[in-house]
Fold:
Amino acid sequence: MEFSKIQELLAGEPKYRLTQVNQAVFGELTEDWNTVTGLPKALREKLQSECPLDIPSEVSVSLDKDTVKALLKLSDGKYIETVLMRHEDGRNTVCVSSMVGCPMKCAFCATGEMGLMRKLTADEIITQVLFFARLLKKENERVGSVVFMGMGEPFLNYDNVMKAVRVMNSPEGFGIGARHISISTCGIFDGIKKLSEEDLALNLAISLHASNDEVREKLMPVAHGYAIKELLVVIDEYIAKTKRKVMFEYLMINGVNDADEMAEELAGLLKKKLCVVNLIQYNDTGSFTASSHNRINRFKEILEKNGVSATMRYRFGRDIKGACGQLATGRN
Ligand code: SAH
Structure:
């Protein structure tokens, strides 16, 4: 979907046409310009031929129906994946990609193995939300929240990500509250700083995954240029400026980063910070094994005993390879 092209096409039209079109595309979630009868026929035909509303896709649904993964075909023939998570309490979260592939090469993540093919445009990011908004509408439901935890590093595509976020957030777009939009980063300092200056109260999640640089460097090549100590200084500045709680994501990998001492070490780093640690069980990508439930519970206990709050992430969609770190498209 090329929303910017729609705007170009409407440039010569009266202003209210754009309002009508936004209402049709984002409000009514129409999939066919011919149904937008408030527009003159000639304009509808022009839109139909130059900005078609269809989103080429292939959908897989997990056995428990909680996760829907969509493979979307982009206009240059590349593919991305996007995931819908349906929570027990009825909330629907869309996990969006910000790139085709990813340059970060984290050892535990399937997307990293693809390398970076290209960054997504704002339109391509918005289309992922639109795709699931349409699907949910058929069941009288809506997208409640969006997380940038799909393929790619959002802070290496900052401008397009923020452009897309503004459409998600705006009342003329999807009207999703800023507090329901989360950006997850491997810790790009520049992006964290820029985010703290935005006038939007988005959630920030940091993929930490280790309690010291030695282990982090083994898992995440980005750690070589970005030491944990320096990262935490940047986070402190972010918290001081925004007064918002930061989430640290911590993948639990058997025998690599899940020892008791590491929980103590992590607690030492995060004590007294306005933050929460989200412990995530490693989803298999062929490189490691996951920590046991007992291990994760023990790790969580140690953090809490030391005054650091912690949660465990519920896993979605492993049977369709739609879980964190499993997104990769062999199609590209
Ligand atoms: N590049 C961004 C966003 C994409 S990853 C980032 O690094 O945060 C989204 C989350 O999924 C991150 O916390 C990432 O570390 C986690 N993840 C990656 N591979 C995983 C795996 N195999 N199992 C579970 N979580 C994984």
Q: What stands out?
A: The radius of gyration is 21 Å. Residues 282 and 290 are 5 Å apart (CA to CA). Residues 104, 108-109, 149, 153, 184-186, 207, 249, 251, 280, 282-283, 285, 324-325 surround S-adenosyl-L-homocysteine (CB under 6 Å). Residues 3-50 form one domain.
